Amino acid sequence: MQITPEQLITAVQNPLAPLYMIHGEEELLRIEALDTLRAAAQAQGYLNREILTADAKFDWSQAFQAADSMGLFADKKLLEIHIPSGRPGKAGGDALVTLSERLHDETTIVIVLPKLEKAQTQSKWFAALSRAGDVIEARAVGTAALPAWIRQRLAKHDLTIDADALALFAERVEGNLLAARQEIDKLALLHPAGTVLHLEDAQHAVANVARFDVFQLSAAWMSGDLPRLLRLLESLEAEGEEPVLLLWAAGEDIRTLLRLRAALSQGQTVAQVRNPLRLWGEKQTLAPRALKRLSTRRLLDALQQCALADRQIKGAAQGSAWSTTKTLFSDLAR
After folding, report:
1. Dist. CA 147–CA 72, nearest whole Å
2. pLDDT band of 159, cuts 50, 70, 90
3. d(C-alpha 282, C-alpha 218), whole Å
């Protein structure tokens, strides 16, 4: 059964299920879900805990032995199996299917995985674990959802925040949810319960710990959010990011828009071409919106800018590759 990290907090007030699977993009939420299960297990008398890490050389017979073995006094056991790569392999996949079919009342198994690709979520082992237990997906908290997440977390400390302070807070911690939680905890130490946080409080207390990756640029320029786009580019440049990956991502997105425009002109719908064009997540809505703003000529010109920046990187053309890259993205966002 699929449950959210928030639903897990309520669910563990009942006896623990025999199997849980935690996966997803957001590391903080994965950590918190595992901490929730550990605390619930301790409260419910699980006196034994065993942790296995399944790397490429892992012997899966250890997992069967751990799942089947009992403590000296037949105590309940919490067995954690961490698969850092998210790819258990053929032997591991078969072992996970078998584990899901031979669960014990006195042992709760927790499978911990990172963000999974589509191939993993459609695998036999993923389906078997999903049928046998509860699945907690730690989805990324996007830019639009981040302010509400911050407000909710502050409320747990009996703190409220005004709109200006919240906007600054979200800007400073975007893309770094673990740091966001640390900043919230810091504010809870600095201010007594019942405090309303204002802009000055956020300016003085919240560090600028935003962390970005190149793939966030797609959402920024496709939505036409120029201020956020410029902030992303400045951050990536300051962190020493080379423009190579940025240009690759831009080129892929521009070609996708051109193919989408051709498909729409032939009477196809976005839903029909979603999978072939990899229009997943936000891109399903952002790509058609970007097409309304960007003509075919502008998209082709953007590809020429990508090519120029690529030559500049290789020393085959004069000028700054970063300057050309910034101009490229800025033009796409307008």
Report:
1. 49
2. very high
3. 10
d(CA 94, CA 277): 32
Q: Where are the beta strands (DSSP E) in 121-251?
A: 134-137, 160-161, 196-197
Alpha-carbon span 78 to 50, nearest angstrom: 6
Two structure tokens written together for 165: 């302070």
Q: Is the pLDDT of residue 71 over 60?
A: no
Q: Report the candidate in 166, 255, 231 with the shortest Cα–Cα distance to residue 202.
A: 166
pTM for the model: 0.65
Q: List, as one string, the DSSP characters of 19-86.
A: EEEEE-S-HHHHHHHHHHHHHHHHHTT--EEEEEE--TT--THHHHHHHH---TT---EEEEEE-TTS
Check whether 61 has a pLDDT greater than 90.
yes
pLDDT exceeds 80 at position 207: no
Q: Would you tell me how many other CB atoms lie within 10 Å of the CB of residue 79? A: 22
Residue range 66-72: mean pLDDT, rounded: 72
pLDDT class for 277, splitting at 50, 70, 90? confident
Q: Is 319 left (phi over 0), alpha (psi -120 to 50) or beta?
A: left
